[in-house]
Each structure stands twice: as structure tokens, then as C-alpha cells.
Amino acid sequence: MTSEAVTIEDLPSQAIGCRRCGLGETRKSIVFGEGNLQADIMLIGEAPGEKEDESGQPFVGPAGRILNKVLEEAGINREDVYITSVVKCRPPKNRLPKKEEVTACVPYLEQQIKLINPKIIVCLGSLAAKTIIDPKLKITQARGQWLEKNGVKMIPTYHPASIFHDQEKLEAIREDFRRVKEAYLAWASSLD
Ligand code: URA
């Protein structure tokens, strides 16, 4: 064990070969996260899918295309934010991560939040919102509502993949990303 402080640059290396849960048996990649390590906005999804497992990058499959679209429409550059998921390895057949998988993986997420120190966190879907904000949260009631925790503004929205089952959720996600952009601009102008 080293007593040296872990930095955000070397945090992903802490997970190399991770066997904290059974997903280590079936994954191809650990999809740790990507983006601006000094981001003011952090996006947190659920778990990697097939394309993410193949590439090692978050949100590069069908859900990523939706995410890119709503980010662009809101005037947010993907390169300016940091994107990760609650669980860093793909659950087989994209099933929901199990409780013990979330518990095993969440310390990585907690370190990412601490080291990146974003001003705004967007929880993409129910699992991220329950993990980060409140285990009892109901995404249908909480989406689009701001909360503040430890000085960080947090907003839950639907997971981009949810629109594949319910197209109407797209407008809600768009609206929430407009709110994120507005809140970001308000925070940035408060620094002037
Ligand atoms: N869905 C997620 O929650 N995360 C990804 O990286 C891809 C799809």
C-alpha cells in the first residue's frame, strides 16, 4: 500500500485488472471515464454497453449518439465535460448492474467526483441519481429538479437510452440539458 495521494490522472490505473466484482470475468474493457479532468460539468451514466466495452470509451454507442445530440443542441461541448458511469464494466447482455456490483465500483466514482470537483453533476438515469443523490429517488418525479449536495449542483434526467422505449423522454432530456447550460452560465458569470 502506498500512502501517496492519488491524482485524477493516475486514478484509472488504480482500476487496472479490477476484480472487485464478477463483471471482471466478462468485460473486455474497463470504461473508466473520459473528458476534461478539470470539467465544471460531470455526466454520470449507468454502465457501459457493447460499443463502450469494445472501445473503452463511455457513451460511444446508440445512447452516446443521443447524448451527443442533446449536448450539441444545448450548446455544451462534449470535450469540455467529464463523462463516466456508476459501474465501469459492462454487465452481460446490458442487464442492470446488481447491488453488489454498484457497491464494489462506487468508490471509483466517489474518487472521480472528489478529484474532478465539478460544479454541476448530471445524473443520466435512475441508477446514477439513486447512487449519487438519494437511494429512494424516483426518476419520473425528480428529473429536471436541482438539488445541492456538498456545494455541488445536481440534476437527474432520464438516461439517453430510455428514448428507445419512450420517444417522449427526448424532449425532457433536452429541457434538462438546457437547464444545465443556463446554470453553468449563471455560475460562470457569478465569477466575474
Ligand atoms: N450507458 C451508460 O450508462 N454508460 C455508457 O458508457 C454507455 C451507455
Concise overview:
With 192 residues, the chain is α/β, with parallel strands linked by helices.
Notable traits:
192 residues, alpha/beta, Uracil-DNA Glycosylase, subunit E, 6-stranded mixed β-sheet, 7 helices, binds uracil
Tally the helices: what do you get?
7
Largest sheet: 6 strands, mixed
CATH-defined topology = Uracil-DNA Glycosylase, subunit E
Instruction: Work out the count of structural domains.
Output: 1
Strand neighbour order, sheet with most strands: 1-3-2-4-6-5
User: What is the percent of helical residues?
Assistant: 25-40%
CATH class: Alpha Beta
Description:
With 192 residues, the protein is an alpha/beta fold. The chain has a single domain, classed as 3-Layer(aba) Sandwich (Uracil-DNA Glycosylase, subunit E), CATH 3.40.470. It has seven helices and six strands, in the order αββααβαβααββα. A six-stranded mixed beta sheet has the order 1-3-2-4-6-5, sandwiched between helices. Helix 3 crosses helix 7. The termini are far apart.
Explain the layout of strands and helices.
Elements: H1 11-14, E1 34-35, E2 41-45, H2 50-55, H3 62-74, E3 82-85, H4 99-116, E4 120-124, H5 126-132, H6 139-142, E5 147-149, E6 152-157, H7 169-190
Parallel strand pairs: 2-3, 2-4, 4-6
Antiparallel strand pairs: 1-3, 5-6
Helix pairs in contact: 3-7
The structure holds uracil.
Residues 31, 45-49, 52, 58-59, 63, 85 line the site of uracil.
